[in-house]
Amino acid sequence: MEPEPTSRSASRYDDHWPSTKAVGPQALLSRNRFIFGAWAGLVVVTLGLLATFVRYTSQPSAGSSSVELPAKAVAITSHTPVDPFGPLSVLKGEPTLSFRENLLSDSKYITSWVSAGWTNDVMTYMNLIYLGLITERIPIIPEFIPSHIGGHVPPIPFGEVFDVPRLRNALGVSVLEWRDVKQHNSTVLEPLGCWNTWEAVQGREKFPRRSRSINDLNLDISFTRAPDWIKIIPNFEHDQHAFFWALAALSYPTTREANLVTPLPSPKQNVSLPPDEHLLCYDYLYYVSAHQPYELEYDYSPVWRFVGKHMHWTPTLERLATDYVRQAIGMTENTPVPPFISVHIRHYDFEVWCGSVPVQECFAPLPVIARRVREIQEEVSQRSGLWVKHVVVTSDERNITWWHEVAKLGWFTPDHTETKAKYGDWYPVLIDAVIQSQGVGFVGTDRSTMSIIAAKRVESWQHGPSIEVKWGTPGADDH
Ligand SMILES: *[C@@H]1O[C@H](CO)[C@@H](O)[C@H](O)[C@H]1NC(C)=O
Ligand SMILES: *[C@@H]1O[C@H](CO)[C@@H](O)[C@H](O)[C@H]1NC(C)=O
Ligand SMILES: *[C@@H]1O[C@H](CO)[C@@H](O)[C@H](O)[C@H]1NC(C)=O
Questions:
Q1: Is 39 helix (H, G, I), strand (E, B) or coil?
Q2: Sign of torsion, CA 252 257 260 263?
Q3: What is the tens place of the pLDDT at every residue in 121-151?
Q4: How far is 419 from 345, CA to CA, in rounded Å?
Q5: Which protein residues are within 6 Å of ligand 3, measured from CB?
Q6: How far is CA 157 from CA 118, 131, 142, 179, 185, in A?
Q7: What is the tens place of the pLDDT at every residue in 195-205?
Q8: What is the DSSP letter of 309?
Q9: Of all atoms in ligand 2, which is nearest to the CA of residue 270?
Q10: Residue 415 CA, ligand 3 centroid: distance in Å
Q11: Transmembrane ranges (predicted)?
């Protein structure tokens, strides 16, 4: 198993507290209710307007890459079934046996693959969508592959986790999934020319980044090695990030042609192809930044501001996680869940970084985490005047004694005993991620990308504060 690729020396952000105006939990709840009411009203009005509008526009023909809805109408219809940026406006039709048959000749597309564990794959897809925005191409997103869940588990579509119609309407551009384009069970093997970025940013592996998604989609890829100048820190072996705009430049004719080299023949059909101009593709987009490596956690992160914060969970997943919280806190069905502080404590696979420090001393003990929880409660209280007493803990820890100690602190935890059997192997981690994002304040684990992204969500969606607990040596979190 590959360690989470966030392993790095301390790269901290100083402004732990988001600068956005404080919105208390109570204000938040009533605000949400207000928004819901407002939505319901708008939807009714909008449907009326749209009905009128549609009468004056022709059917979206296969060739019209965007139905010319005014921006306003698009914004207020994001929760209605109308989806002007959906597959039918940027593809010829329903999924076909060969992806190429389904692409419109006057639209341009972009894709890539994943291979780094679910949270990192989420970040990779954010990068793919962002690269789509800056190259003005329609992203086509593959499924999530079970790299940390277990190879026997089937992949799960991106759209079963994230609300894709809401995302594309928030972005105002199309976002597609591979399942929209090519039939899931198609046995048609298709050649495709792509850029190999992996060999340009690191020297250990003398091949393009591998991913099972490529096989799952029945693609046979001929890779062209990208130039060394895509790498952010030239010749530096301890980092492997590329610049977004270097990759974007390669998609435009002048830079593309100046950098074409002999492609590697594809593994199955032995065809050599230059990078495709219709469906642009890169082997791997996890390690991509605008300004500096690992920038998602920084306040300026363009990927978060322009894409990540619009990637909301599907309503089904959101409801399921709320049910788990309700049950954890011991509330009856249909009662509203009170505001809570969410906590993510990552242990299990982080042991590899403890080195010679015994695990008991390496990870932050519960009293240290409790001190951080109290600080977040105080911060929330300062902002909203409310003391949020409920604390919901998510963790990969398997030690029962440790969980008993969590319970003794009066903290709650989702019960995943039956989650896999009921919903499938993906769901414990999905539900935990949603719960983390629902906290009005968040306490996470330093160096965990799952915690970093949860903190961003709490900041953007709940306007809540967050902190990451340091670990690695006794007293690592002293402050
Ligand atoms: C592929 O799946 C679709 C429905 O999901 C089914 O109708 C079709 O027969 C399947 N084709 C093959 C070749 O299995
Ligand atoms: C692949 O194609 C090249 C060029 O056509 C040819 O020289 C080579 O022998 C082929 N390799 C295989 C394994 O078929
Ligand atoms: C389980 O957790 C308890 C409490 O944190 C700790 O004392 C014990 O050593 C742990 N057991 C193992 C096997 O790690």
A1: helix
A2: positive
A3: 999 999 999 999 999 999 999 999 998 888 8
A4: 19
A5: 360, 399, 401-402, 405
A6: 12, 20, 7, 8, 14
A7: 999 999 999 99
A8: G
A9: 1
A10: 20
A11: 34-56
